[in-house]
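Hi R.,

As promised on Friday, here is the backbone we talked about, encoded as structure tokens. Could you run it through your design pipeline when you get a chance and send me back a sequence?
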């Protein structure tokens, strides 16, 4: 594959999401569940973070994302356990799958095949196959589509369903602003990128930072407000050279807490006055779900053009491949 393939994958996010939403309409018996746990790693895990934040204002169920080999002690037969491994062979996630089976959790498994599919079939667990040939991080649109369909059946909130339906319409005619992405990528070249946003949307900042890591081979850091205003804002003082090496991006999303919006603008001004280069991205649609999707697609595109500026292949993840090989030795 070439770097052009990543660009086409990024621009396929809308169609992947729409397809994922229509893949499987079967009901899952979730009567009596008390919590939701999502087990995954890397590009497969970020969907859990995003889903958690989409559900946060409306869901009565505690929701935890597990990026490890072990499930929390409270996981039981009253847990809705989502197992997500795009390859189907992620060792941490497989261990969680086995653990969830022992605890008789109500399980939904997602993968493109692999051991996840085999274990699901063997144990008569609901499995949804993601029929894509791409890196896990590029399958986010389809994964979110699948999961949001299931969540509309679990969280019977009309406004939430309406937001998703409206998002589907907007995604069918989505415009990618390549010109602006190219412009910003040129500015970011050679800088460490710090990304900050409201804690209610921290998954968007996390996704962007990780896309810069994997696609752009470019170091990035993320944090969220108001927490960063209680510690990190002070740390951005020394060493002196960081003012010339770090570029700071703030993400403003319409549905963020008004106090955090005010904090963001004040924090941005303080850091700019201190000598940092800063930029604000605003996502101001009335639809909260669409704003999250829009921000992901906008920033994914930026990560691609920064890869172009860095003259790297956004498809390759050589150090991860080396790491996996050595772990198996």
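Update: got your reply. Pasting your designed sequence below so it's all in one thread:
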């Amino acid at each position: 594959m070439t770097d052009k393939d990543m660009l086409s994958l990024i621009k396929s996010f809308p169609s992947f999401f729409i397809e994922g939403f229509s893949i499987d309409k079967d009901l899952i018996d979730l009567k009596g569940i008390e919590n939701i746990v999502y087990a995954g790693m890397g590009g497969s895990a970020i969907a859990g973070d995003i889903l958690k934040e989409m559900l946060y204002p409306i869901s009565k169920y505690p929701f935890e994302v597990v990026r490890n080999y072990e499930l929390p002690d409270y996981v039981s037969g009253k847990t809705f356990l989502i197992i997500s491994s795009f390859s189907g062979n992620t060792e941490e996630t497989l261990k969680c799958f086995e653990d969830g089976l022992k605890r008789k959790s109500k399980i939904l498994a997602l993968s493109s095949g692999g051991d996840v599919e085999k274990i699901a079939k063997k144990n008569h667990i609901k499995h949804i196959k993601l029929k894509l040939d791409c890196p896990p991080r590029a399958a986010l649109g389809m994964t979110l589509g699948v999961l949001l369909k299931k969540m509309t059946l679990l969280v019977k909130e009309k406004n939430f369903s309406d937001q998703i339906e409206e998002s589907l319409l907007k995604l069918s005619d989505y415009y990618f602003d390549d010109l602006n992405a190219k412009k910003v990528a040129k500015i970011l070249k050679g800088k460490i990128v710090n990304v900050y946003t409201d804690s209610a949307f921290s998954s968007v900042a996390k996704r962007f930072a990780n896309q810069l890591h994997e696609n752009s081979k470019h170091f990035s850091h993320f944090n969220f407000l108001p927490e960063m205003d209680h510690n990190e804002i002070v740390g951005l003082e020394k060493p002196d050279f960081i003012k010339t090496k770090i570029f700071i991006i703030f993400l403003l999303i319409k549905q963020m807490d008004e106090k955090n919006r005010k904090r963001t603008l004040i924090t941005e001004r303080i850091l700019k006055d201190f000598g940092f280069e800063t930029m604000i991205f605003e996502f101001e649609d009335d639809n909260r779900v669409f704003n999250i999707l829009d921000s992901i697609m906008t920033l994914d595109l930026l990560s691609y053009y920064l890869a172009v500026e860095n003259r790297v292949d956004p498809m390759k993840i050589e150090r991860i491949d080396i790491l996996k090989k050595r772990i198996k030795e």
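One thing I noticed while checking it: Residues 3-171 form a domain with the Rossmann fold fold (CATH 3.40.50.10490).

Thanks again,
M.
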